[in-house]
Amino acid sequence: MTIPQRVGRTWGRNETLPNSEKKGWRLERVALMAAFTVSMALAVGAWFLIEAGERLGALANDTAGRLVPHLQSEQAVLFAIEQLQHYGATVRESANEGARQEALAQLSRLVGDPVLATDADSLSLIRRGAAALNGLANARALEDADRSGGGKSALPVPGEGPAREEWRQVEQDLHRASEAIALSMNAAGTERGLDFERAADRLRVRLYAAGLSLVALLLLAGVAIRRWLLQPILLTTQALADSENELAVKLPHSRISEIDRFYRSVERIAASLADIGEAQRQERATQAELRRLASVDELTGIANRRWFSAMAGRELERCRRFNHPLALLMIDIDHFKQVNDTHGHAIGDEVLRAFTRVLESNLRSLDLLGRLGGEEFAVVLPEADQAAAEQTAERLRSAVEAMAIPLADGSHIRLTASVGIAMPAESATEPLDGMLARADTALYTAKHGGRNRVVVY
Question: Is the overall model pTM greater than 0.90, yes or no?
Answer without folding.
Answer: no
